[in-house]
Amino acid sequence: MKTITTVKEMQALSDQSRKDGKIAFVPTMGYLHEGHLALVRKARELGDVVVVSIFVNPTQFGPKEDLTKYPRDFDRDAHLLHREKTDIIFYPDVKEMYPDGYSTYIEVRKLQDHLCGKTRVGHFVGVATVVAKLFNIVKPHFAVFGQKDYQQLKVIERMVRDLNMDVVIVPYPTVREADGLAMSSRNTYLSAEERRTSLLISASMAKAQESFQKGERRSPILKRTVEEMLHSSDGIDIEYVSICDSETLEEVNEIKNNAVLAIACRVGKTRLIDNTIFTEA
Amino acid sequence: MKTITTVKEMQALSDQSRKDGKIAFVPTMGYLHEGHLALVRKARELGDVVVVSIFVNPTQFGPKEDLTKYPRDFDRDAHLLHREKTDIIFYPDVKEMYPDGYSTYIEVRKLQDHLCGKTRVGHFVGVATVVAKLFNIVKPHFAVFGQKDYQQLKVIERMVRDLNMDVVIVPYPTVREADGLAMSSRNTYLSAEERRTSLLISASMAKAQESFQKGERRSPILKRTVEEMLHSSDGIDIEYVSICDSETLEEVNEIKNNAVLAIACRVGKTRLIDNTIFTEA
Questions:
Q1: pLDDT single digits (tens) A17-38
Q2: What domains, with CATH codes, occur in chain B?
């Protein structure tokens, strides 16, 4: 396993790798958990060469967000990636990715404004921009993204299609703890009590999913189910509970095609998101 | 010489071409003149495979601009490109480049706001976006751009550097008619009288350049030289006469490093631009 820190070296290595086979890529911000490792295993299935990037991207954090305290542990990450037979870790620093005078940004209009885009203004511009950069650096045939960041996945898919990027985006289902909490590097912020409270998120989604399976198609009813359950604890502040079209992310009042139930809330100071897809059987 | 109209076919052909050698690319909006052909000859020197795109890009035209009347003549263009030993013409239609639901745009902040960006709002977003798309489709090693569109060149250079696009941008000096007028597809809009009037643009630049060579470094003085000459005809409306830093495009009051004298004006209804670089000997 190699660790590469410069853009130039990574591009040269990718050019070389593309001659012999397929590159499968997993972009991450590090502090890896089982969710990330599932993506790496998927990449291992798809590619001859597996590249994982570790880069805490400053342009996707707002001024009041947790950029500086975002958890980091490169040695631990490298150990885990080695065990998953990763070939290359791309691990640039901020200066390498955003040198002085940097000024180019990509926006995926409309999609970037819904859900998390309402409160995290500029977040998806940062995400789209860094992913475009990483694609130009790593030159992958496949890139694997978790469905837990559903809006991110949709923004990336749209960008790839619109800008004719020659890479296949592979979505991967959300990996959960045994008790249902969606895996996230930010879960490490939670106290023991907050950790228990946070279970209401997946539990409320399961209840809404059950109601949907029994035939309920009215979004206000399904959302009330979720909201009531989340409000059953004082420890949760809801940012949004949304039921939206699974492609456009526009709110739907009644579920006709595939729709997504997406939740963002705060448990203590920790912002958590989760989602589930309502699919007609 | 092949003409390719779909993104998919072009990408497959480019993948193939990259295995054997280097691709040199000239993006154009067609209605080719000697200026374009000089770029194609440069590309012929640089690449094993020469690709020229012809696409009148709607996203770089403002609502009141000349998109619909922009001159087009594919057969003539194809004939000229064949003579220059072009290998591939990429000639997509608007639906192929911007299908329904298209929503991704690239902005090069700051650079896009100066000079032509002030009146042509959104123009450079359109330019950056279509060039990024074309690069992802044609996958060139080299791309040749004329210096006549100086701000465009700088926006593209910045985008390529910022987004880590693995392509070398090759600038090419402005090609002029025997009497000095910079070549442009829009010159065909000019009446005989307007054509004569338009000579004041290059003549005024030559006069300012002469003054610079004699030691004048004060921008207001150099600009006045240009403006007075342009105002000597009733037929010219000045949009801007700017002396700016050759990299940041910010106005300079006194020339210390390399600077650009850039002019945009209307001769009748036709908008013409030109520029010259002040270089210390």
A1: 998 899 999 999 999 999 999 9
A2: 2-172 (3.40.50.620), 185-274 (3.30.1300.10)
